Amino acid sequence: MAVLLMAVLPFSDLRADESVNPGLDAKVWLEKMQQAYRQSNFELFFVKQTSALSEPVIFSHGVVNDKQYSHWMYLNGIPMGYFTVGDKVVYFKAGERPDVVKSGRHHFLLGRFNEINLAHLYSNYVPVVTGRNRIAGRNVLAIRLNSKHSDLYGYMLYLDETTNVLLQVDVISPDNGMIIECYLATHYIYGDTPNQIIQNISEATVPEADVTGRNDSADSFKGTKRRQSNFSWRLEYIPSGFSLIYSETVKLTDSDVHADHLFYSDGLADFSVYRIKTMDAREFPVVNQGPVNLLRHTYGDYEVIVVGDLLLKEEEKIAESYTETDAANVESQTSRSGDE
Q1: 10-residue block means of pLDDT along the chain (340 residues)?
Q2: Which CATH superfamily is domain 226-334 in?
Q3: What is the reported pTM?
Q4: DSSP labels for 4-68?
């Protein structure tokens, strides 16, 4: 029986505690992870899973003539997703015209972790190698990112030990340590050449961008501001580690209603704050999907909406810190945080 078990389960080090290989430097492994991503050709099948929803996805990445391409597509329902060509992100949905965004970034964590500025990541999180495991039939190294602030989610990353490619990400609640969202890897294919999808993208002609999007480049967190607007209101509370990326006034879809909009990011998590004229006196429930919460709060003639990758208690603090002023400069809001 012992021989049989060793044949079926030949991995004797499937443990997950911080005493395993204490000499392993998590930062070194994260650098290897990003380097591997830039150089690798692979397909990754996974399920993006929360307590309420499971979405199977295929993610492909490849390098053609020293240029990176990637492709993400949902496998259920109407074919939709996006692909990247250089600094352009092309969003597609069957039967509709694609949207092209310049300087956009991945909308899912597997992509963001491979491209985020690591120095900025370390300003908010402490990486720790916690052990080894086996995922999608592969030996993986587990790295936990512990937030330096109690108001941020934590993350668990699983890196393939042979190729160093990131295979799975778990989003961890700081309140109870439970997994609230998981990119659950099911199948991984690594090759010397890109798959046909990536080759087709590399040969396609991508039109000019419709709009300029947002990214998490180093400049985004060194004071470079875009589309800044001054509003007659401000927020007295911003969660730890978040920076104001831009502010703008936008027109809501299919309506004549305009909204003030602030967009914040810490490089991994994002959140937006909107202020609009109150349209309905009814109370609205909180909307939740995995780590994403949406909270609406009414102040007289205005409604403040907070939505993003935040704990609900943090969104409540943000909404409750809303203050009207004569002429507020939103840039000053980047310095106040939950640490103060």
Answers
A1: 38 39 81 96 95 92 95 95 90 92 79 92 94 95 92 94 96 91 95 96 84 46 49 91 87 77 90 87 73 89 92 94 72 50
A2: MucB/RseB, C-terminal domain (3.30.200.100)
A3: 0.83
A4: HHHHH---TT---STTSSTT--HHHHHHHHHHHHHH-EEEEEEEEE-SS-EEEEEEEEEEETTEE
